Amino acid sequence: MEQLGKLLIQMIISGVMMGFVFSLIAMGLTIIWGVMNIINFAHGEFLMIGMFFSFFFFKYVSIDPLFSLPMVAVLLFIIGFITYHLLIKKVLQGPVLAQLVVTFGLSIFLVNLAVFLWSADYRMIENPIASGKISLAGIAVSIPELVASIGSMIIGAAVYWFIKRTKTGMAIQAISMDKDAAAIMGINTDRLNAVSFAVGVMCVGVAGALLSNFYYVFPEVGSFFGVIAFATVALGGFGSIEGAMIAGVIVGLAEIVGGFLLAPAYKYAIVFAIYLAVVLIKPTGLKGW
Amino acid sequence: MNIKTRHIWLILLALFAIVLPLILDSPFARHVLIVILLYSILGEAWSILGGYAGLLSFGQAAFFGIGAYTSTFLLINWGVSPWIGMIVGGFLAVLAAICLAYPCSKLQGHYFAIATLAFAEGLRIIFLNWNAVGGARGLDPPILPTSLWYLEFHESKLPYYYLLVLFLAVVMLAMWKLNSSRLGYYLRALRESNNAAESLGVNTKNCKVIATCISAFITAIAGTFYAQYVLYIDPASVMQLKLSIEIVLVTMFGGVGTMFGPLIGASFLTSISEIFRVVLGGAGRGMDLMIYGLLIMLISTLKPDGVWGLVTERLGRRPGKEKAKTSGE
Questions:
Q1: Which of B10, B15, B111, B298 is deepest in the core (most CB within 10 A)?
Q2: Does any CB of chain B come closer than 8 Å to the CB of residue A273?
Q3: CA distances (Å), origin B6, targets A36, A121, A174, B254
Q4: Which DSSP string corresponds to A215-228?
Q5: Do A109 and B106 touch (CB under 8 A)?
Q6: Architecture of the domain whose range is B3-314
Q7: Interface contact A98, partner B, CB < 8 A
Q8: Tens digits of per-residue pLDDT, A104-151?
Q9: How far is B93 from chain A (nearest CA, A)?
Q10: Are B197 and B204 in contact (CB under 8 A)?
Q11: What is chain A's Cα-based Rg?
């Protein structure tokens, strides 16, 4: 009985830890969706880029992923900013389907650019600072996962604060509520769209950098996380940041506990099943309006 | 345009379809034509949902996979002809469509898109781990002597081509009938405004379910054709999210809600992707797909109305052309 209790606590802890990372990824996606009404199919690819950047910082400049994190964040922010100006801005006024297509094209492009530049090999960061595990009262916690979850929590909280408390953040919220009214009130929607896209890309890039401590780095890695992120965002409600945070934790828990109760191979099928079950009861997700 | 010129156009088009593979007689060109036909059929099926009803489905691969797997499974285990397997697969896909669409019919816009995506991905994961259907290894139908009954032709690709032309013609005819049918009007009404349609007495829920069922049935049959053509299926080839999105792409490039749109889009996209694959595939790692992605981005940014706008302008007086704006809100 005690064994089972411990196992349960163990699972809940790792589920929640992974959940925070999912939350951060989903937060990035939901900001972009909420502000620009665009489903970013290339979201997972930005995660992949974040992972590769921290891998390269580690390999060529010997900077640990933990310390290169701010640089990766800045780089991804810049990439997001450029992407907005080169691509997203041009389709915002166009047909809805063109908006879907453009990010899908971007996703194909980025994956294959990575294959072209860096080959399709699986890579691993060997012996980063965050490695090994600690055990407390018989419960083992993997340090890289712990670091990833704490890091995601900190960045997530910072972005939350930025959106909810700063003037720029409030302007972004205003755009996501009513873009025309926001424009009439003198908000520069174009500049803030760019900022929110860049922040969204930065969130997912940072998540990638944190994941690179314990996850394989390869060009296709993003597609899986991207799909999970769609389900997470929809579960939380499109455009809702709180929703994305809660949903991320639910997804993390569902993955671990569901994988234990059924077979680990089916754990993501369980995630999708839970998502479907929730939207059936509440069609706009947990926190959607 | 009067009826007579329309008939002449259609006859010319049919003749063109019959003669085309005889002119382009290399196996590669015929392969490209077959892929184009397959994507056109899938695009037409998607159109019923995305074009008429405004329900953006990102889970067509689920139905495609069900069709491909059902017929192949029946053929391997009990030697059932793919013609029977395709009907069984079609009905299983309809069953899946009911399970998906009935509860999802109240979902709007992006929520419906993500629900279909989650459904397809979930199903893919189940098939990936389901040993009875080969798991990740997939299934390969037994190589039987060439026969129409077992839908296997080893000497030439032509029979596949003509069967698919016939299939596409039937689907297009069905679309044309649907266009002026009660259901067609209902679907377009609920695309424009769900609430308005409902207040006029349209049972929107049933309409959405029926539309999904028709779409799923056609997609599943195309899945059987694919399985018999390639003679190998696995979750990565018939149930991948990429396939679902490519179906959307094809329709969009050709023009959503138009009868010839999917055909135009499929011709364009398949040709360029196959040509890039052949010309550049050997040159470098991922080079061909990189350029493909780049091209998609260029077209949707530089010409937001895309090739579809360009082509429909040119073919403005084509039969079956219908003024349809891209759907969605």
A1: B111
A2: yes
A3: 43, 55, 52, 20
A4: S-B-TTHHHHHHHH
A5: no
A6: Orthogonal Bundle (1.10)
A7: yes
A8: 889 989 998 998 888 888 888 887 777 778 877 777 888 888 888 999
A9: 18
A10: yes
A11: 19
Structural tokens at position A190? 């174009």
ipTM of the shown complex: 0.83
In this structure, the number of other CB atoms found within 10 A of the CB of residue A173 comes to: 17
Joined tokens for residue B160: 């596949």
Under 8 Å between Cβ of B324 and B317 = no
- DSSP-assigned letters across all residues of B220-266: HHHHHHHHHHHS-B-HHHHS-HHHHHHHHHHHHHH-TT-SSHHHHHH
Q: What does the pLDDT read at residue B326?
A: 40
pLDDT tens profile B267-285: 888 888 888 888 776 666 7
Residues A172-209: tens digit of each pLDDT: 888 888 888 888 888 888 888 999 999 999 999 999 99
Q: What pLDDT digit, counting tens, does each position of B123-145 carry?
A: 998 888 888 888 888 888 888 87
Location of structure tokens 């679907």: B187
Any B CB within 8 A of A107 CB: yes
Q: How many CB pairs below 8 A link A and B?
A: 152
pTM here?
Answer: 0.85
